Amino acid sequence: MSFPWAKHYQPTSEFGKYMDSRLPLPRFIYGALGAGYPTPKNLNYFYNFGVLAGVALVIQIITGVVLGMHYAANTGIAFDSVEHIMRDVNSGWMIRYMHAVGASFFFAVVYVHIFRGLYYGSYKPPREVLWLLGLVIFLLMMATAFMGYVLVWGQMSFWGATVITNLFSAVPIVGEAIHTWLLGGFAPDNATLNRFFSLHYLLPFIIFGVIILHVWALHIPGSNNPTGVDVKGPQDTVPFHPYYTAKDFFGLGVYLTLFSVFVFFLPNALGEVDNYVPANPLSTPTHIVPEWYLLPFYAILKAFTTDFLLVKAKLWGVIAMLAAIVLLFFLPWLDTSPVRSNRYRPLNRIFFWIFVADCLVLGYCGGQLAVEPWVRIGQLAAAYYFAHFLIIIPLIARFEKTLPLPNSISESVLAKYGKPPASGSAGTLGGTAPQPAE
Amino acid sequence: MASETSVSAASGAHGDGLPPEGERRRDFLYVATGAFAAVGAAAVVVPLVNQMNPSADVLALASIDLDLTPIQPGQAIVASWRGKPIFARQLTPQEIATANAVDIKTLRDPQTLAERTKPGNEKWLITLGVCTHLGCVPLGAREGENRGDYGGYYCPCHGSQYDIAGRIRGGPAPKNLEVPTYAFKSPTSVTIG
């Protein structure tokens, strides 16, 4: 599980010894998050985002459980019960805004976390299962966020539910039956709202379970690092506590500050005004858009406007949107380059940033009305999305001339600060610089 | 029992009292237990899955009567049926001519206006107001709404365009606007459903 030089837990008190032979929870935490978990010593702030995502989930669960005490999942009163939370429940406005803004922040943090993994090659062996579990979490998050958004029962809730559940009706033959089964009717109604509430309450705990597997899978090989080079010895690592607990707490402070700015000063900046209009099954808003974090996938869904190859445009859109996510599951086997980090992959690094730009363009097009030039730009961006994974990445992996890798993390870190790797002299930076924990 | 004892005696090498190969009594018990558990699980899963299908009260939605008298030529109204909007439109003679002038071989979902209306009542076009793409309500039934490039209905969600006969002409939708089951009760009223 850990490196051979990991420190072992030593219970100090009598009670500690008593517990250690009965329920060794302190030993478990010591080895997973404490001084007993050696971690690469060169992790930068992008490595905070996993912990931040975990905190974001906990905030969602706590605020969500509280909101559930005041919310009523019935189409007649759902919208009013949300307004009741906003106006009448003590601090209800704050709790609801924390939950709504928290969802956006959760996705923002997870997107940074995913792109961090893409940049430093964290999906490559031996961390493929870790990557796959992360994608499962991402899928569960999207389902949870979608169903939570429907609970408000505003116009965007209703029409978002209509559009997304209709995706399933594109399936040949059984599509319409699946669609009716999901809704419990022929259009979103009380049955739909009730089951979405039930599942929205359930899924975060399933996410929590998959996160435990995700962290477990992380702790087997240990964290990747910005060089992408494997840990070679004790000089490459520092104990997780206090080094990364301190670094994570600092990052958490920044995160919560930004979170508070949005909760208290910009609570609706990331949402859609149309969702403050009660759901009306007879009138579609002029412009249906999902929340910002789903826009790139929505743009891919919209990219197919004509039938081809005997498949209807509608089914193509659904296939493409699912494929955009499913492709990510195959990434560890599409990118066969032995070098993990983009620091040493000059060509791949360029295409990484083009891919980031492509995702932003997709997101922008997803938020626009279905008119030119956004339809055409969205189509090109969607085509590039697939080309990136299916053509560009495999080709780069074959033909790229990578830069020489450092011999070790330690060498890379010391070279950065102008120290010759083998000197071992601490004098060059002012004599009494504190040494890392031995 | 007697035959079993004699078989196990013949296969003394194993020491577990069982024949070295072939079907053992325990194999049968494993398969029987597994099969019984699978059938039992299926018997529980079926109602657990089926409970999500529309309940009896949802299925029991009655049909509706729609009075067509207030609809002037060129106008449409929106009614609600099974929780979905219904568009009822009275076509003008020019609109009927426009719809019939289209070569249906060029259509994505080929249908003539006559196939989408009742004989003798071609001027009454009654369709679901549900885009066949992802279920939005198309614009064009109410006064002043965008009716798209083909003068019928325009779906604001993903840009599907329907012509004056409610047939799909552009955008991602696969089918024409659905025509519900309905019958004329009198020249100016219909029963839908």
Describe the secondary-structure layout.
The complex is a heterodimer of chains A (438) and B (193).
Chain A: H1 14-20, H2 25-33, E1 38-40, H3 49-68, H4 78-87, H5 92-119, H6 128-151, H7 155-166, H8 175-183, H9 190-219, E2 237-239, H10 240-265, H11 295-302, H12 313-334, H13 346-366, H14 374-399, H15 409-416
Antiparallel strand pairs in A: 1-2
Helix pairs in contact in A: 3-5, 3-9, 3-10, 4-5, 5-6, 5-10, 6-7, 6-9, 6-12, 11-12, 11-13, 12-14, 13-14
Chain B: H1 2-10, H2 25-50, H3 56-59, E1 64-67, E2 76-81, E3 84-90, H4 93-101, E4 124-128, E5 151-154, E6 161-163, E7 168-170, E8 182-186, E9 189-192
Antiparallel strand pairs in B: 1-9, 2-3, 3-4, 5-6, 6-7, 8-9
Can you walk me through this structure?
The complex is a heterodimer of chains A (438) and B (193). Chain A is an all-alpha fold and 438 residues long. Chain A has one domain: Cytochrome Bc1 Complex, Chain C (Up-down Bundle). Chain A contains 15 helices and two strands. Chain A has helices spanning 14-20, 25-33, 49-68, 78-87, 92-119, 128-151, 155-166, 175-183, 190-219, 240-265, 295-302, 313-334, 346-366, 374-399, 409-416; strands at residues 38-40, 237-239. Mean pLDDT of chain A is 89; it is low at 423-438. With 193 residues, chain B is of the alpha+beta class. Helix content of chain B is 25%, strand content 21%. The radius of gyration of chain B is 31 Å and the shape is elongated. Chain B starts with a helix and ends with a strand. Chains A and B meet through helix 7, helix 8 and helix 12 of A and loops of B.
